Amino acid sequence: MNKSMLMLLCSALAIQSSVAADTSVTSAPTSKPLMNKALAANPLLAASTLAYEYPAFDQIRNEHYAPAFAEGMRLHLAEINAIANNTAKPTFDNTVVALERAGQSLNRVSTIFFNQIATNTNPTLESLSTDLAPKLSAHQDVILMNAKLFKRINAIISQRDKLKLDAESNRLLDRYYTDFVRAGAKLSDSDKAKLKAINAQLASLGTKFSQNVLKETNASAVIVEHKEQLKGLSEGEINTAAAAAKAKGLDGKYLIPLMNTSGQPYLSSLEDRAVRQRLQEASVNRGSHGGDFDNRDTALQLARLRAERAQLLGYPNYAAYGLEDETAKTTTAVNKMLSELAPAAVANAKNEAAELQKIIDANHGDFKLAAWDWAYYTEQLRTAKYAFDDTQLRPYFELDSVLQNGVFFAAHQLYGISFKERKDLPVYHPSVRVFEVFDADGKSMALFIADMYARDSKRGGAWMNSYVEQSTLFNKKPVIANHLNIPQPPKGEPTLLTADEVKTAFHEFGHALHGLFSQVHYPRFSGTNVPRDFVEYPSQVNEMWATWPEVLKNYAKHYKTGEVIPQALVDKITASNKFNQGFATTEYLAASLLDQRWHQLTPAQIPSDAIAFEKAVLKEAGVDFAPVPPRYRSTYFSHIFGGGYSAGYYAYLWSEVLDADTVEWFKENGGLTRKNGDWFRQQLLSRGGSIDPMESFRNFRGRDPKIDPLLLRRGLK
Ligand SMILES: [Zn+2]
Fold it and tell me: Rounded to an integer, what distance in angstroms lies between the CA atom of residue 714 and that of residue 5?
């Protein structure tokens, strides 16, 4: 599998974590109760009566959200005030646990809403989202800057030695204290007011940035006039492009939609260099060429406000603030990793470029390798070196088989869990599937939602989120969803995945396992509620099973003949694993460096031209190699400006250190066995954030992580 699959957008996951975690949120309290007939009938305001409290998607309508948010915020605030104004002396139960219990209605409506705007949005929800962002931010501030509440938490902290709390409760106490301090609880009243104003602006701008990216990506799809310009694509891909054009009223033409990243999938097969150039340029110019969805100013404003926010809270810059709460802890640690790896990665990419140039020259191309040529000639080089290409693999990667005989099968071998489709539960889009998950002992344990196809109403990328989080406090079992963006084939044709898409399916299911196996008391620590630079670790580990021979042979069967993928082809895939790593690592590091530089600025250092700044950063960091643009450019880098990875995009590589070391552990211990799976589940996956994540790693691995397996894997050693 040639391309690295590390950088998958998990924005919904981040939204989910932040909402479910501290959640709090309200505009000004409404004085009179809003409960009336309409509210009583609002499906978002009561726990769903369906199994596992699975959302009643068939009953939820656009008009239910706004009143449910208003009522949810009102109820939450009433609960918060009752805790803050309690005349009884502060105890862990009447304060910290009470906070953890508060806001369930709001949490429910937020969870469903933010999942729906990511997966199945419409203009009404987008406009509501714009309206809600500052209100939710203000609601959160009202709670986290509540002086009485903070005083109670302080009082409990000061007597903690006498409380004899269990370890998870102790951690919860710390977590709430930290959340309050980081949200400005210690600031003066005037600084609190400033912070609230900044938070509201940031919330609105972040929403605007994401909405612009989605609209701009849809608007930037490339339209091709003639079929011969699509030479190199398969008949099925051409049919898909024709159908996509037709759906937009462009009968007889062809439409190539854009994916999130700078690189676009069809660049590897389109023979027409001019079309490749158009596709690449449409992609990298997103958000920076004027028009309604230009994001240059939005990015600048977000960077400036974040810098101001960090200074107000006593940090030199936003990254310092953000990283303090991650396992990396400091900008020094992150800068060190990025700057140490960049030169070797770029040197590898330049060697790869030289090989590609040789092919161009041998074919009398008479041009210099450009960004839009990279994937195309890499595919040729791979064919020459390893004698296979992606089109040979796809007939073996039929979606349902990948999911059930691959992803589910690997989980069954490792953890003993099994899956049964539930067609009785309502879905928000006809292509969405729901599975009930059963534990090794046959007991029902969770629901898993598989939402695999791309559509205009869905954000790009791939991510996991939870609809219901496991906790014993609320006696809840998880409802977890995975989202991919696989192009919908024309009617009647099979969905054949690329090697990258297969790997993505395994990756996202790794996140899902983190949620499904959660075994914690407090929802604050459930599943993926761990530091951002740790959360990509279990998902990356799960990628290893995509090419594990026993798994591969179980799912990779030719969709027409049922023939198992030939061993010779499997061997070639394995042999090509390190192929094109210079490119993959460089484009990733370039994006990570952009993220850090944007967020290590003081307010006075904010530039006036986003694109010029980006250029200067890449040059100064030594990653300005034109054939390899950053995986995301600033104006469509939703992870950092729209989602939850601001100053955190480095997290994928940071997590990969743990991943590569864990892959070694599985290999040392016999690979795909129940014994290995159960140990990983028990020591790591089930713990969520209930213990220090690095401690759970050490419990699992028996020592600190080593970086060597990562360096070897990426050809950096
Ligand atoms: Zn991920």
Answer: 12
Contact residues for 498 (Cβ-Cβ < 8 A; gap 6+): 265, 390, 393, 394, 397
Phi, psi of 655 (to 5 degrees): -65, -30
Say if pTM beats, i.e. exceeds, 0.85: yes
CA distance 211 to 84: 37
Q: From ligand 1's centre to the CA of 662, what distance in Å? A: 16
Structure tokens given for 581: 């790593």
Q: Given its phi and psi angles, is residue 711 left (phi above 0), alpha (psi -120 to 50 degrees) or beta? A: alpha
Helix axes 123-144, 104-119, angle to 10 degrees: 140
**Which residues have CB atoms below 5 A from the ion given as ligand 1?**
8, 10, 536, 539
What's the gap in Å between 11 CA and the centre of ligand 1?
Answer: 9
Q: Are strands 479-486 and 444-453 parallel, antiparallel or unpaired?
A: parallel
> What is the C-alpha to C-alpha distance for residues 250 and 256, in angstroms, rounded to an integer?
12
pLDDT in tens, 628-686: 999 999 999 999 998 789 999 999 999 999 999 999 999 999 999 999 999 999 999 99
Q: Supply 167's token pair.
A: 């370890």
Ligand 1: centre distance to CA 9 (Å)? 6
Are the C-beta atoms of residues 497 and 533 closer than 8 Å to each other? no
694-701 LR contacts (CB < 8 Å, sep 24+): 694/327, 694/534, 697/537, 697/658, 700/662, 700/665, 701/661, 701/662, 701/665
SS3 437: strand
Contact indicator for 111, 12 with CB cutoff of 8 Å: no
pLDDT for 259-298, tens place per residue? 989 999 999 999 999 999 999 999 999 999 999 999 999 9
pLDDT of 2 above 70: no
Q: Is 100 a catalytic residue?
A: no
Contacting residues for 140 by C-beta, under 8 A, at least 6 apart? 22, 23, 24, 25, 183, 199
Residue 481 C-alpha to ligand 1 middle, in angstroms?
A: 13
State the distance from the centre of ligand 1 to the C-alpha of 461, rounded, in angstroms: 10
With beta carbons less than 8 A apart as the criterion, state whether 554 and 405 touch: yes
Choose the catalytic residue: 398, 508, 536, 614.
508
- Do 1 and 546 touch, CB atoms closer than 8 A? yes
Say if CB 535 and CB 510 are below 8 A apart.
no
* Collapsed DSSP state (helix, strand, coil) of residue 269: coil
Q: For 672-697, how does the pLDDT look when each residue is reduced to its tens digit (9 = 90+)?
A: 999 999 999 999 999 999 999 999 99
